[in-house]
Design goal:
By secondary structure, the protein is an all-alpha fold. It has two domains: 56 residues, no CATH class; 38 residues, no CATH class. It has five helices and no strands. Helix 1 packs across helix 3. It is extended, with a radius of gyration of 20 Å. The N and C termini lie far apart (56 Å).
Length: 95
């Protein structure tokens, strides 16, 4: 039961941070909107993200597989370029 509470807390914190960062970039802050509108907007944004997650056909296993594939492709690219030193030399040649 404790792990469920911890997991839910982390998810809510992540969603809150995500919505806060995006709204700050769009200049939708407490000072520009007022406290009540700001809280309502964030609640609506978090609720919408949660509902989108519920209705999405993607499963967390597939997302994890995609992330692992991206890491593997990046690692392969770095190795083919001669490691980190090869990437640094290639970058110098482009300039």
């Amino acid at each position: 039961m404790l792990m469920i509470v911890v997991g839910v807390t982390f998810v809510i914190n992540s969603l809150d941070s995500l919505t806060r960062l995006y709204t700050e970039n769009m200049k939708l802050t407490v000072t520009t909107m007022g406290f009540s509108k700001y809280v309502l907007l964030h609640w609506a944004a978090m609720f919408t993200l949660i509902m989108l997650y519920q209705f999405t056909p993607l499963q967390i296993e597939w997302i994890g597989l995609i992330v692992i594939a991206i890491y593997a492709a990046t690692f392969t690219y770095v190795i083919k370029q001669g490691g980190i030193a090869g990437l640094v030399n290639a970058k110098k040649m482009v300039r």
